[in-house]
Design goal:
Length: 131
């Protein structure tokens, strides 16, 4: 099998971003104890960054003449997030972010011939690694 196209690589990253747990956590009835307001703020920031990454990836896909793949459907009811304590969920979120950073690192090596895509992936990777 040949090297994936730039559009395929970007769509794979887009799908990974859309599956990031931070957004799902905010959509569930997660229990946030009063002492965890800093963690909630961090979760909200990560979810906002993820939405921004989705926008950036989608914009570049369209700019390159591609089309974003349909957004994966995630049933919040089936994600076992309801009524969990935020402090119990944070380790999962961090693991998701680490795995996502690895996806971006792998994608970067595939995008060496596409400077715009490589620059965007590098910028997003730096954000994921900043945690």
């Amino acid at each position: 099998m040949g090297k994936p196209t730039v559009v395929e690589v970007l769509n794979r990253l887009l799908s990974c971003e859309q599956r990031l747990s931070a957004g799902r956590f905010l959509g569930s009835r997660l229990f946030v104890p009063p002492a965890a307001s800093a963690e909630l703020s961090a979760l909200e920031r990560i979810a906002a960054e993820s939405r921004e990454h989705v926008e950036w990836l989608t914009g570049l896909l369209v700019e390159l003449g591609g089309a974003p793949d349909p957004r994966p459907v995630v049933n919040i009811l089936s994600t076992d997030l309801h009524y969990q304590d935020l402090t119990d969920v944070l380790p999962r979120m961090k693991a998701d972010r680490k795995a996502l950073a690895e996806q971006y690192s792998e994608a970067l090596s595939l995008l060496a011939d596409e400077p715009d895509a490589a620059a965007l992936v590098s910028r997003i990777l730096a954000r994921h690694q900043a945690e």
